[in-house]
Design brief:
heterodimer; A: mainly alpha; MetI-like fold; 9 helices; globular; B: alpha/beta
């Protein structure tokens, strides 16, 4: 099964393009071009126009993700392990989690400018809550007995952290990242339609405004491939860090 | 020498204070074993948790070689009911966890590790994960971790109760043979009378609500192999059973 994985991906891509091609044949309008034209266009313009935009988008996602992990993971672990912190912080999290982060966009843009920082913070805000809540819950679900051998060894908090809390929270933490990633990419698209000349969001909207549907679809394909790449990367990291889960 | 004097443990539940253990007095000589037997909810596990340093709020005195019990100072091996193996560590890493935390040894001493694994018959399992091995094998890994540490005190919470009858007897023998090599003071909690007789130099019978020692029996049969077939084994078992029945029906 494991060796066949790329084959299954390929099959998925083939089915996707086949469906697209059928739809384009039925509709017969420039707004749904044939996938072959789009692929030809993509091959022609990727290095020239699109690559730089995709790098910008990837950088924003990576930076937002990094910040979210940097803050969310320790916070989630502390809240899960120390009930007092949880009692204090949970209401704050629950109050702010449901706020649609995109609604904060104008405020972020006012406070941090329309440049990189506000875009990265937007992604951070979207991912960080899922990371906090998932990590906290995974720590809470560790049976008390798991700690006993360490307590009876007189283990300091550092040892408890590295031996139990960190590895135990890893699977749910990675799932949280995976779930948040799709949202983050969609929101990234939105934020990149303001105040920048770079990023996949800008490229796709720009192509749309120029009524260049081939380029627009090329951009969408690149965005979706970026997603595929990020998900595959997360899968790979999970295999490395949580291989014990599959035993 | 492990001394317990006037040990009382109370739990604060929602509204009331619940006494789990009341005035426990017990002394276990160095290198001795003590089997604690009692009905569910009599505070057997509480007693172990106090000895393991997991419960730190109690009345009375608990001393190991004259020092108040403290997991940072003494080496305590604790084997919980589910063996306490960490699923994300391999068998080798699990066994070495005690050494790593207690003696700050970063690199494994493979010779020592291999020796203890051979003594416990798990030499081949080093690279496996706990989820990949049987309950009996997990138990052996857990014993290996505890004995590698050469603890001042070994605690076992119903160590063999999750195993099937045949594996259980086999593991009891494995335990006795390695215990003889390392001569570690051991307290084990069980609800099997036979297990208490087979493994306990001293047999402590607890009664419930609150948990109190109702009797301490010096076990004359301890240490003999093949005592399971002897009539004395059955007689002692029967008499303890009768004691318990009288006691627990109160």
């Amino acid at each position: 099964m494991e060796k066949d994985k790329p084959l299954w991906f390929l099959l998925g891509i083939v089915i996707f393009f086949a469906l697209w091609w059928i739809v384009s044949k039925i509709i017969m309008l420039p707004i749904v071009p044939s996938p072959f034209l789009v692929l030809a266009n993509l091959a022609a313009v990727f290095m020239k126009y699109i690559a730089i935009h995709s790098l910008y988008s990837l950088w924003r996602i990576a930076a937002g993700l990094f910040l979210a992990v940097l803050i969310g993971l320790p916070l989630g672990i502390i809240m899960g392990y120390f009930p007092k912190w949880d009692r204090f912080l949970s209401p704050l999290i629950y109050l702010t989690y449901p706020i649609p982060k995109i609604a904060l966009m104008p405020i972020l843009m006012l406070l941090f400018g329309i440049g990189e920082l506000s875009k990265i913070l937007m992604i951070f805000l979207i991912i960080v809550f899922q990371v906090i809540v998932a990590t906290r819950d995974s720590i809470r679900s560790i049976p008390k007995e798991t700690y006993y051998p360490l307590y009876s060894l007189g283990a300091p908090f550092g040892a408890v952290f590295f031996e139990v809390l960190w590895p135990a929270s890893m699977p749910k933490f990675i799932t949280a990242i995976r779930v948040a990633m799709a949202t983050a990419i969609s929101v990234l698209f939105f934020t990149e339609t303001f105040g920048t000349q770079y990023g996949m969001g800008y490229f796709i909207m720009d192509a749309w405004l120029r009524v260049n549907y081939l380029e627009m679809y090329s951009g969408i394909i690149v965005l979706s491939l970026m997603g595929l790449f990020l998900f595959a990367l997360i899968d790979w990291i999970e295999k490395r860090l949580c291989h014990w889960q599959y035993k | 020498m492990i001394e317990i004097q006037d040990l009382t443990v109370k739990y604060q539940s929602q509204k009331e204070i619940y006494t789990a253990l009341e005035s426990i007095n017990l002394a276990i000589p160095d290198g001795g074993t003590c089997a604690v037997i009692g009905p569910s909810g009599c505070g057997k596990s509480t007693l172990l948790k106090v000895l393991a340093g997991i419960i730190t709020v109690y009345e009375g005195e608990v001393r190991v070689d004259g020092q108040t019990i403290n997991p940072r100072q003494q080496a305590i091996g604790f084997i919980p009911q589910n063996y306490g193996l960490l699923p994300w560590l391999t068998v080798d890493e699990n066994i070495y966890l005690g050494m790593k935390i207690k003696q700050h040894q970063k690199t494994m001493d493979y010779a020592k590790l291999q020796l203890i694994k051979e003594q416990l018959g798990i030499a081949e399992l080093g690279k496996r994960y706990p989820g990949e091995i049987s309950g009996g094998q997990q138990q052996r890994v857990s014993l290996a971790r505890a004995f590698l540490l050469k603890p001042d005190l070994l605690l076992m919470d119903e160590p063999f109760s999750a195993l099937d009858a045949i594996t259980r007897e086999e593991m009891q023998d494995v335990f006795l043979s390695i215990w003889e090599k390392y001569a570690v003071s051991t307290v084990l909690v069980t609800h099997y009378v036979e297990e208490a007789i087979y493994l306990g130099q001293k047999i402590v019978i607890l009664s419930a609500n609150p948990g109190k020692i109702s009797r301490i029996i010096e076990n004359p049969l301890f240490g003999g192999r093949n005592i399971r077939q002897k009539p004395e084994f059955f007689e002692l078992g029967l008499s303890i059973r009768n004691l318990i029945k009288k006691d627990w029906s109160k």
